[in-house]
Every structure is written in structure tokens, then in C-alpha cells.
Amino acid sequence: xxxxxxxxxxxxxxxxxxxxxxxxxxxxxxxxxxxxxxxxxxxxxxxxxxxxxxxxxxxxxxxxxxxxxxxxxxxxxxxxxxxxxxxxxxxxxxxxxxxxxxxxxxxxxxxxxxxxxxxxxxxxxxxxxxxxxxxxxxxxxxxxxxxxxxxxxxxxxxxxxxxxxxxxxxxxxxxxxxxxxxxxxxxxxxxxxxxxxxxxxxxxxxxxxxxxxxxxxxxxxxxxxxxxxxxxxxxxxxxxxxxxxxxxxxxxxxxxxxxxxxxxxxxxxxxxxxxxxxxxxxxxxxxxxxxxxxxxxxxxxxxxxxxxxxxxxxxxxxxxxxxxxxxxxxxxxxxxxxxxxxxxxxxxxxxxxxxxxxxxxxxxxxxxxxxxxxxxxxxxxxxxxxxxxxxxxxxxxxxxxxxxxxxxxxxxxxxxxxxxxxxxxxxxxxxxxxxxxxxxxxxxxxxxxxxxxxxxxxx
Length: 459
What we know:
Blueprint: H1 2-30, E1 45-54, E2 64-73, H2 88-95, E3 103-108, E4 111-112, H3 115-118, E5 136-142, H4 159-164, E6 169-172, H5 179-191, E7 197-203, H6 204-207, H7 228-240, E8 244-248, H8 250-255, H9 258-268, E9 272-274, H10 294-297, H11 300-306, E10 309-313, E11 333-337, E12 351-354, H12 357-368, H13 377-394, H14 398-409, E13 416-417, H15 422-430, E14 439-440
Parallel strand pairs: 5-7, 6-7, 8-9, 8-10, 10-11, 11-12, 13-14
Antiparallel strand pairs: 1-2, 1-3, 3-4
Helix pairs in contact: 1-14, 7-12, 9-12, 14-15
């Protein structure tokens, strides 16, 4: 009986997905003319005029946010502030298109656009910033300096220790003059070497102070480059490899090196695997992409067993990316990473290239393109055959059918947030993405406040 109940629930869920697909199709037919957003896209200004949202309730009108008018211009950093229950979260969801506006107007570069169009402009970060190397600066408050440690309202035990455990850098300012210096160092540390979150603590009494402070000029974090000998050694290994493989992790996303990665893979005809956090850096439908099925059900284990050279780009090969799947890498292992701390931790590297992935790949390409381009038609045919076989083996499973229904219901630019459930694993293994930053999950598959099912449940 329990199995029948689960099957019934699964059928209901699938029917809801099919209904959603039909509804999205109808919305697309009925929507007004949209601004077509394609790559490359130049953003200037996003303007919201008198937007509102109302939470409907069966007994009363419900809580309402707005009307609110706001203009967001390229290069701006905006802070949304307000008291508890003032509507900050609702406004954020309105701005990013997660909630439809009850009324109001949205303009992109001075032209009105449709909600389905402007939602694709956003890539929101709602996950474990430190673990996933997300550069961000947090500004937190604290009890007045003379009340710290005395049980002030909202004070927690040892706030600095609590926050330091999840950030790269932390600073408590003692006076208003220290604020600009703290912000300067917070941004430098957020983007320097391995990116990550930083935090500045400003006590309440300091927030009310007035004073004069020097404003720092913009500074670009130092970017390391590997020596030319290491670049040439790695290039020769790849050129002479009979069966090379590229293993790409989240560092490729942070570096925005999709063009360079694609160029290298196509020039040498190298099969490329992308981890869960790197989905979209190379389109999943690309003829050299071997990511379908992930490390658990996909082709990567077979390709690694046959490979004689593997290039690891932007992955520390830790438990989440490789170790827990018992992946075996060849002795000829090349790793590109922003910091040497991630080198030789679980796997010994023959060549370690420390630096920004985009910069290092550019250096590699300049050397490799001096040699003749190989023709590995056999590799292409193998990938096509193996992927087709893998899909055929999974077509009868609920997991594949569920993800296939979602795949058919969404566009290539839909942004997916995957939560810590079995469905998250299904999405990682079987959901294909073609664009960068259209799939978000956490490295440890926990702590994410959004799920795949949430867009289906309308308020």
C-alpha cells in the first residue's frame, strides 16, 4: 500500500508539472512583445514604477507591499533596509521576478518588458557563501560598545567568533573614522585569491556618530600567474595526450572563463565534465560535454579510467566534487586553481598552475595553438553513443521522467534553485543547463532556502 501511495503522489506531481508546462506555453502566447535578451547583452538601467504585491488571504485582503518606484543602474550596489515585517524580502522577490507584480511597470533600458523576460536578468546568491567561494561583503550591527557582553537587546554570545567561522575576514570598527578603511579591506579580501564572504561589524553607537574619513580609491586584487615553464609543461602534456579529459569546477564560474574553456576543449577535442556548481559553463548539449548523469550515473568514471591526462580547472577535488564518488585520476594530472592551498590535497599533481582560471587558460591556449589542431572524431562519436545509451537506461525511472518534465517546462534561461532533497540529486544528474548561473545548489547540498517545487506552488 505504501508503494501505491508513493506512486500516486508521483503521478500527481508529474501531472502538476505537465499543467505548469501548458500554463507557461499559454502565458508565452498571450504575453505582450518582449525585449529579446541574448548574449552578449548590454545592461544600462532597470526601472520599476509603482510596483505592488499583495498576499491574498481567504479571510482578509492580506499584507500589501508598495507602490514602490526604484531605478537600478549598471555598476550600482544597493542596500535594502527596514524593520522586521516591513517587506524587504517581498520587495527583493518582486525585483528579481520571483513574485509577479500585482500592478506597476518594469522597464529595461527605457523599454517596458515582460516578467518572463526580465527574470532571466538575475542571478541571485542565496547559499553557503564561504563554502561555495562567493565574494560578498556583509555589514552587521552589534550592541553599543559600552554594552557588549552585558546582555544587551539582541546580543548573542561572542558574535565575532560566530561570524568568523563562516567568513574569510572580519572586522569590528571602534569609531566612524575606521569605517572606510574596513570597507576597503573587506572588498579586497572578498575578491583576493579564493573569493569568499567578509564581514564588518558596526556597533549601534558608532552608526550614529559623525566624523570625517578618507575615501579609498578602487583597487584591483593581486592576481598570481604561473611561470612559463609550468605553462609549457602542461601544454605539452595536453598536446601529446591520447585520451585527455577536462574536469571543470565552480572556479570556472567565478572566473567567467567559459569562452576560454570552450576554446581549449574544441581545439584539442577534449571531453569536458562540469561539476554541479559549474553547470552551464560549457552548455550541457555541447558535443564535448560528458556531464549528463553526474559522477553517480554518468560517463565520467569511464572516461577517467581511460584517460592518460586530466586537466582540473577550478575544482579542489574535495569530498563534494570527487572524493566521495571514488573517482580515480591518472598520474598525469594538471590542476588550475586560484590558490595553492587546494593543490595536492587528495590527489598528487604533476603540474600545479596557481592563478585565475581565465588568465591561465589564455596562457595555455597561446602555447597550444602554435601546434596543429588534432582530429578526434572517434571521441565525438563515443560521447554521443555513451550519452544516448545512458539516457535509454534511465528513461523508465521516475527521476528521469520528473526532470524531463521540468526540462520541457522551462526555458534555457530559467534560473533553477535546488534544495537538499533527493530531487536535488536528480537535478544535478539529469537537468541540463545551457547558460552560466542558471543552476544553483550548495556544495554540501544543505542550507538552501529555495527548492525546485516552489515555483509550482502558487500563493
